[in-house]
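Regression report. Comparing outputs from two consecutive submissions.

Submission 1:
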Amino acid sequence: MKFLVNPNKMLPFTSISYVFERLIPLHNIGGPYTCKRCLRSFKHQASIYNHIKYTCGSSTKFCCDKCSFASKYVQSLQSHFYQKHRVVLSRKELKNYVCEVI
């Protein structure tokens, strides 16, 4: 039995064709919703909404007022506050941490 893809996880695959035929296509599934800017496709409408609002061509960033951390996502800032500063804030409170554009 051979161990392919990641030897640290020790996933038993009997052939490399299994990896290319079965596993890799699962990560490349497109969807009916396509971004007009970057042509990336999404399976769910909520996913493309978040992509357009926060990721694709967006310069909106959320900044930490205690250090130099910045992120495009509120969730990342929320995790940062808890992990680095041990502060628990709701997502509504985090909307006030939008970076100023200079």
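Submission 2:
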Amino acid sequence: MHAPDAYESDNTATTAKAYVGTPQTGHTFHEVGDVDWVVVYVPNAAQATFETYNIQGSDTILDLYAYNASTGAQGSLLATNDNKCTVVTDVNCRGSKIVRSVPAQSAFFVRVRNKAGYGPNPYEPTAPGYSLRIF
């Protein structure tokens, strides 16, 4: 069994960790069914990129949800991405990427899940993992 990463408990939109402007490194899928949620605030209108990288034994799926400002809850699914390129044998292609125009003073939930759908191999020294950046 692998220990949870530093961002746990972040398995739901209500327990999402805030993205504070710097990449979040060292996310893991430490158990079967583990998913990670992040909430991000965008102060200025921009072309925003949401991306997983530094893929280690996983194959991420990235989901972008609206943030419901009146309730603070998860809104509708806006976009999803499985592989950011088509060469699935290239570990870097197993990362996910969403590029989207976003309005000023908006917020979003980001969910990251492991396409493989299984947890860590107890015989491996580390759990499957990735890093997340939003820019």
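Expected: both submissions complete independently.
Actual: both completed, but the second showed a warning that disappeared on reload.
Relevant detail on submission 2: The radius of gyration is 14 Å.
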